[in-house]
Fold this sequence. Notes:
Structural class: mainly alpha
Radius of gyration: 13 Å
Strand content: 5-15%
Number of strands: 3
Distance between the termini: 37 Å
Largest sheet: 3 strands, antiparallel
Amino acid sequence: xxxxxxxxxxxxxxxxxxxxxxxxxxxxxxxxxxxxxxxxxxxxxxxxxxxxxxxxxxxxxxxxxxx
Length: 67
């Protein structure tokens, strides 16, 4: 069960935070290499901020391991 205090980011915020474009974010969710979206309504989606932050932290850790 999710905590009610988890923040949901909409697409523009996810794009700004990750530097990824719309197509990459949606493709990543489908292919499993980016956190999946949360359907809010029939026409609105979002992503849990902590999941996006964890994804970014994993990318940073990969960079450190490669160095």
